[in-house]
Amino acid sequence: APSYKTSEAGWRPLTQICELIPATKVYRGNKMITFASGGLVAVRSSEIVSNLRGEGLDLVVMDECAFQRPEVWTEVLRPALADKKGGALFISTPKRCNWFYDLFNKQNSEPETWKSWQFPTSTNPFIDPYEIALAKASTSEEVFRQEYLAEFIQENGSVFRNVEASAILQPGQARKDHHYVAAADIATSADFTVISVIDIDTREQVYLSRFNRVDYPVLEARIKQVYQDWFMNMIVVEVNGIGKPVVDHLTEEGLNVLPFVTSQGAKANIILGLKAALEHGQLKLLADEIQTRELLNFEERVSPNGAFSYSAPVGQHDDCVMALAMAWDMCNKMGVSEDVVIEVGDPLEDIGRFSRRGI
User: Fold this and answer.
1) What span, in angstroms and rounded, lies between the C-alpha atoms of 28 and 45?
2) What percent of the chain has pLDDT over 70?
3) Are 84 and 56 in contact (CB under 8 A)?
4) Environment class of residue 341 by beta-carbon count within 10 Å: exposed (0-12), middle (13-18) or buried (19+)?
């Protein structure tokens, strides 16, 4: 469970059931029950992830898993099931479209090993329907749909709208007659490096690469390869933290690198620009599952003094969002202007004519 307090909902009926089984021992202090067969069942909190590590498991039940960090499953519990080919049950109220949403949809891609169920509160025979009606009348539609109808609300409280309608593209191929711009968000030890490429002519994302745990030379080689493959004359690279030496090395290699300093104001500016582009259908995206999830979960926060900040939810990543936002910002700034040929004549008249045409 997310905490020992929330685990009480499962621990109480568990002890009541097991006390009916002969030769069981209930250790209430550490919430563990042992059986005469040598097996055991225990309730744990995921507040400190490392405390969950231990022997292999036959079955794990994650209660309110949408409110736990994804690495509880991916890095600790999933490996513990491997040697016994154990099973898992995930129970939760939805929390927008986070990693629990991804698990819920695995039955579509892996129907042999995953199955999902969805039960609104009305299916519970112990809850008075009148209480549900009262809740509907006193809560917002988004909250009611999530908490009582068990629906995944894709845009409840999120920054970006129209994400899934925009994420429809497959990776493209570089064309010499097109113009491209790229941006790279450089990883810290806990994050991912993401390179995002946008076709300036079509306003479409054509390439996305996401990786981590590589040495500087490998990281820089991948950025340089993208730069060359897409016939670029400039790339935006985030310079906060470890990004500065990357910018320096790439510049030495002959790449035209535009550094991006991620201050609060600069970040807000590019995020709002990307938000407007998606809302108005000005940008089409690759149908990338991780990027889509990051966009849907991206949050806006307001400080006590009224200042706005933007970031991923605690424990999640926004590397795809930042790379995309930087690339889109530069795409807007560069644009594509038609070639201008000024023939012999009066220069002032020519300049005036082209100015009136918006060139």
Assistant:
1) 14
2) 89
3) yes
4) exposed
Positive or negative: CA dihedral 282, 288, 293, 295: negative
Centre a 10 Å sphere on the Cβ of residue 186 and count the other Cβ atoms it contains: 27
Token pair recorded at residue 176: 């010499």
**Considering Cα of 305, then 311, then 312, then 316, what sign does the dihedral take?**
negative
How far apart, in whole angstroms, are the C-alpha atoms of residue 85 and residue 79?
A: 10
Task: Tell me whether residue 165 is exposed, middle or buried, using C-beta atoms within 10 angstroms of its C-beta: 0 to 12, 13 to 18, 19 or more.
Answer: exposed
Supply 329's token pair.
């910002």
Residue 180 bridge partners (DSSP): 199
Q: How far apart (Å, rounded) are the C-alpha atoms in residues 309 and 306?
A: 10
Report how far apart, in Å, the C-alpha atoms of 41 and of each of 33, 34, 114 are. Answer: 5, 7, 23
Nearest of 336, 331, 359, 339 to residue 234 by alpha carbon: 331
In eight-state DSSP terms, residue 50 is G
**Angstrom distance (rounded) from CA 319 to CA 321:** 5
Please classify residue 34 by burial: count the beta carbons closer than 10 Å to its beta carbon, then call 0-12 exposed, 13-18 middle and 19+ buried: middle
pLDDT average, residue stretch 37-56 = 87
Handedness of CA 67, 70, 74, 76 (dihedral sign): negative
CA distance linking residue 304 with residue 308, whole number of Å: 10
Task: Compute the residue count for the chain.
Answer: 359
User: In the structure encoding, which two tokens stand for residue 64, read together?
Assistant: 């309110």
Quick check: 166 and 155 in contact, CB under 8 A? Answer: no
Q: Which two tokens stand for residue 185?
A: 């968000």
**pLDDT tens string 301-344:** 766 565 678 888 877 889 999 999 999 999 988 864 444 444 44
Classified as helix, coil or strand, 45 is coil
The sign of the torsion formed by the CA atoms of 99, 236, 224, 201 equals: positive
> What integer is the mean pLDDT of 255-283?
90
Gyration radius of the chain over CA positions: 26
SS3 of 231, please? coil
Give the Cβ contact number of residue 345 at 10 Å: 9
